[in-house]
Design brief:
By secondary structure, the chain is mostly helical. The protein has one domain: Arc Repressor Mutant, subunit A, CATH 1.10.10. The protein has a two-stranded antiparallel ribbon. Helix 2 packs across helix 3.
Length: 84
Amino acid sequence: MSIEDGERSGRSKEVVTDENNKKIHKMILNDRKLKLNEIADTLDIPTERIHHIIREYLGMRKLCAKGMPRELTFDQKQRVDDWE
């Protein structure tokens, strides 16, 4: 009897890779209204992992229905305030 996990078929354990991060970033820049599940279906990655990559690795968040960098400059903040 072994306590080690055996090899299993299916998705790989690690989906947070530079390659996936670049693909997700490129997809978001091409279409900022893209939904998480559309990205997940395209890349065959779970939706919660897509959300994690966008927030933690790409530093983006949802703002005014668009993905935007988390850290905005003063001028960018002023423009966002003007939209509201």
